[in-house]
Amino acid sequence: MSSMSLRPCGDYRTSYAKDTTIFPTKWSRNFAILGLILAALFPLIASQYHMNLAITIAIYGIAALGLNILVGFTGQISLGHAAFFGFGAFSSAFLNNTYDVPVVLAIPLAGLMTTAVGLIVGIPAARIKGLYLAIATLASQFILQDFFSRADFFTGGSAGALAQSFSLFGWEAYGEHNFYYVALVFMVICFLLATNMLRSRDGRAFVAVRDHYLSAEVMGVNLTKYRLMSFGVSSFYAGIAGALYGHYLGFVSVESFTILLSIQFLGMIIIGGLGSVMGTLMGTAFMVLLPEVLEGVVSAMNGAGLIGASFMTNVAFLKEAAIGLVIVLFLIFEPDGLAHRWRQIKAYWKLYPFSY
């Protein structure tokens, strides 16, 4: 009962379009608008450090959403998402540096180039699944990493590539406070596109393939088409996020796109909730903020004399260990993620003081 979508009395749905609307209630729509207003005003009170965290959440959120479409909505698996993320970053820098394509156009073009690579890698997805597909995507991670190191014409090799700042009509997004708005706009657009796509015929086909592929095929769903399409959509989001990441840092390096980042993306969607658009953002924020909160707690304990200075040298190790521990705990105690917990909290207050 607690997981059901509770609608107020008098909220009748008289058409299919109304039943599949983005915002199920007017309160959810108003909260979304309020959240956007607060997000737009955030730079007025935030420091450079907090802006950096917010930009990281926005960029990683776009990439994690692409992975959630593949894993959470279609039931596929990918262990090479960081490689597609990196390909988008190098593609955008390559287009801008080599052909003078404006950054504002290079970012979506980088997404399309990454989509093409994702479709090639996704071809085995039409034939294999489960552990075999996981190994195939893991291989793509290492193949693309090796390509980044050797393709000097495209990536600059081990030296990396410079990425120009985002600019539009003479306005340059230089610095955290300016680039934040670029990341925010791209994040809102990407999340709205994903939400609308999942409400469409293709989105329902993704879910049908995930829930029971034999039943989906009997109903006329083309398994090969939609498995391949999910890889393409996932890669497009990774490419857009990677391009934003490169232009934010101003430099793209091979070392930034390792298998560890792929596992972190998986952790974001597991913690947030597989098959949930809102949960993707919640999981991303959790994974980005957890190490920072942990470091703050350890520093406070050191300042209070509760731990020695030698303990501080192991903070980096503790942060990585905490991320792994949290992923394991969520898999054991909350496999449906933060999105499911949020729905339970809302249902509790709607039903209060009754338990059922």
Number of helices: 16
The strands making up the biggest β-sheet line up spatially as: 1-4
Radius of gyration, in Å, reads: 21 Å
Low-pLDDT ranges: none
Q: Pairing-aware structural class of the strands and helices?
A: mainly alpha
Shape: globular
Q: SSE string, helix = H, strand = E?
A: HHHHHHHEEEHHHHEHHHHH
Number of strands: 4
Q: Taking all residues together, what is the mean pLDDT?
A: 86
Instruction: Kindly report how far apart the N and C termini lie.
Output: 7 Å
Content of β-strand: under 5%
Helicity level:
over 70%
Oligomer: single chain
Can you give me a brief rundown of this structure?
By secondary structure, the protein is mainly α. It has helices spanning 16-19, 26-41, 48-73, 81-99, 103-122, 131-150, 152-155, 176-199, 201-211, 213-218, 223-249, 259-272, 277-303, 309-312, 315-333, 337-351; strands at residues 161-162, 167-168, 171-172, 251-252.
Helices, strands, pairings?
Blueprint: H1 16-19, H2 26-41, H3 48-73, H4 81-99, H5 103-122, H6 131-150, H7 152-155, E1 161-162, E2 167-168, E3 171-172, H8 176-199, H9 201-211, H10 213-218, H11 223-249, E4 251-252, H12 259-272, H13 277-303, H14 309-312, H15 315-333, H16 337-351
Antiparallel strand pairs: 1-4, 2-3
Helix pairs in contact: 3-8, 3-11, 3-12, 3-13, 4-5, 4-6, 4-11, 5-11, 8-9, 9-11, 12-13, 12-15, 13-15, 13-16
